[in-house]
Amino acid sequence: MKRPSVDEYFMAMASLASERSTCMRRKVGAVIVRDKQVISTGYNGAPRELPHCAEVGCLRESMGADSGTRHELCRGVHAEQNAVIQAAVFGVSVKNGTLYTTHHPCVLCVKIVINAGMERIVYKEGYPDELAQRMIRESGIRIERSEGRDFYNR
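Predicted structure:
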């Protein structure tokens, strides 16, 4: 068996994190890495101690919100947001880090990544958010789509 590359290894961790998601529409996982060490992980779902969407329903779904729109209607916290929050809770800087995420981040998460000082984003699946793509280009953050083998879902 071929040894996974560093990017494949951390993307597999992001895929595993996504399995914890409680979102009814899209399971997303994220891992923040600095100097080839995991700093933090996250997945999308309701804030701690609050009912999951599977228990109370999805407001965005009931209102017919298209993918990539009306983020304010979602009760869930995005995987990328949760990864940054968890790092902050434990007092760990994500500056100069790389975000591995199963999906291209939305504009809300991109703004957090920019202000947190991360240098690179590696994602697996696309996401329809043109403003997010434009802001990443303007910020100078390196972004790459993962093209490697998916070691987690063999």
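Summary: The radius of gyration is 15 Å.
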